[in-house]
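Subject: design request, 253 residues
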């Protein structure tokens, strides 16, 4: 790792220069943060779990034609991804009221929403990642109207996929956030799902008991975060020690 050029270090990952032009090595850390890094801890094994789970979800999206930056997993903590220009927005899809939407609108946590709701947040830790409207996004040049239409379409396809996968193992997908980046192929630009998809960026509840299996366990001091993530990985069959072969994810109708 010492000989590899570091490009960026964030709260949960480190990005290194990849072996080929246009590639990046994404390293998953064990660090856990919440409330814009006001709360911090190191959770042993978290990075390994998120690497395996993100590989599982990104590979599944690639298989069904939803483009992502993911190329392959290198080892237990690293994966090779394509270099992208990240749009400075977090795209959040909500199926059930929880977290900030409950606080903002006074909707009881756990209330099913009438349809998936897509929200945009400006990526800036210093500002607390504020929610922004399409008017803000266009006015400040963060994305075009066509970009936003494509981002919403991508986010809803990811939602359909993840909801089905999770439903199949008895988990409710409450909400999630993704990041989207631009990739150029000659003069042609396309948008792809980037960063990661893991319990770090999803709210996941046991479908029967409502037990939280996501970062809210850490945010709200509800137990051991690694145990929660391990349970998600166990149900999906992606743990290395699992004897169940890791098959391709399939959608549940």
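Subject: RE: design request

Done. Sequence follows.
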């Amino acid at each position: 790792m010492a000989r590899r050029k570091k490009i960026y270090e964030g709260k949960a990952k480190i990005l290194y220069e990849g072996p080929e032009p246009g590639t990046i090595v994404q390293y998953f850390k064990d660090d856990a943060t919440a409330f814009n890094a006001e709360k911090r801890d190191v959770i042993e094994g978290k990075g390994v779990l998120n690497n395996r789970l993100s590989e599982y979800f990104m590979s599944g999206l690639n298989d069904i034609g939803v483009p992502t930056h993911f190329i392959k997993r290198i080892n237990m903590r690293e994966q090779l991804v394509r270099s992208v220009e990240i749009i400075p927005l977090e795209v959040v899809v909500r199926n059930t009221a929880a977290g900030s939407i409950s606080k903002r609108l006074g909707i009881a946590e756990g209330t099913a929403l009438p349809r998936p709701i897509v929200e945009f947040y400006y990526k800036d830790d210093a500002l607390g990642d504020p929610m922004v409207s399409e008017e803000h996004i266009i006015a400040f040049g963060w994305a075009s109207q066509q970009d936003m239409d494509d981002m919403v379409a991508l986010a809803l396809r990811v939602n359909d996929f993840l909801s089905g996968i999770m439903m199949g193992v008895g988990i409710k997908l409450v909400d999630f956030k993704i990041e989207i980046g631009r990739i150029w192929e000659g003069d042609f630009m396309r948008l792809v799902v980037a960063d990661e998809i893991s319990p770090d960026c999803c709210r996941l509840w046991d479908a029967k008991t409502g037990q939280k299996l996501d970062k809210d366990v850490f945010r709200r001091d509800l137990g051991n975060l690694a145990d929660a993530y391990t349970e998600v990985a166990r149900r999906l069959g992606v743990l290395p020690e699992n004897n169940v072969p890791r098959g391709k994810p399939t959608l549940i109708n």
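The two ends are 44 Å apart (CA to CA).
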